[in-house]
């Protein structure tokens, strides 16, 4: 069983924000697998699983998850699901935004530090490992994790970053992001069918 987690924040307030691009990708992935006798029902029917604090959609071989814990506590949900279904972190994919990547770029990697992403750091903390695959979707201006010396400058920068990632995509960016989400879904499918190296070679 493969676990694919889209990182984001629940609720209408955060829908279609930059920080929720992980949710957008897993929504698209799940809907592409969804088959309904009612042709009007084109979207996957997610189930709220209170024991996991998540929305879950299960296909034959894949569990898609959107944690409802808010971004910074995503690891609570992922650890609970991994334990319940006995899923090894080798079979975990986390899909999330990356402010250090230009808008629309995709980067696939396995293991390593969180890069300052609090959702990824929560997964690392709760799973006690960084050995899982990440699909990073660029949302940024390239000013996310650069260091500044003065505490006041750091606070100002932190505020700007938070404001940016919680903002919605501009109208001029929406079409581009739809294309990027489609490409990210294609990258995930190639990873599932042909492995990490093939996906990295095609999309990195």
Automatic annotation (TrEMBL):
Site (Discriminates between blocked and unblocked aminoacyl-tRNA): 9
Residues forming the catalytic site: 19 (proton acceptor)
Binding site for tRNA: 14, 70, 72
Gene3D superfamilies: Peptidyl-tRNA hydrolase
Site (Stabilizes the basic form of H active site to accept a proton) location in chain: 97
Family matches, as InterPro entries: Pept_tRNA_hydro, Pept_tRNA_hydro_CS, Pept_tRNA_hydro_sf
SUPFAM superfamilies found in the cross-reference section: Peptidyl-tRNA hydrolase-like (SSF53178)
EC number: 3.1.1.29
Keywords: Cytoplasm, Hydrolase, RNA-binding, tRNA-binding
Keyword Cytoplasm attributed: yes
GO biological process, one term: rescue of stalled ribosome
Subunit structure as annotated in this protein's UniProt entry: Monomer.
PANTHER family attached to this UniProt entry: PEPTIDYL-TRNA HYDROLASE
Family: Belongs to the PTH family.
UniProt function note: Hydrolyzes ribosome-free peptidyl-tRNAs (with 1 or more amino acids incorporated), which drop off the ribosome during protein synthesis, or as a result of ribosome stalling. Catalyzes the release of premature peptidyl moieties from peptidyl-tRNA molecules trapped in stalled 50S ribosomal subunits, and thus maintains levels of free tRNAs and 50S ribosomes.
Protein name: Peptidyl-tRNA hydrolase
UniProt source species: Candidatus Gottesmanbacteria bacterium RBG_16_43_7
Annotated gene: pth
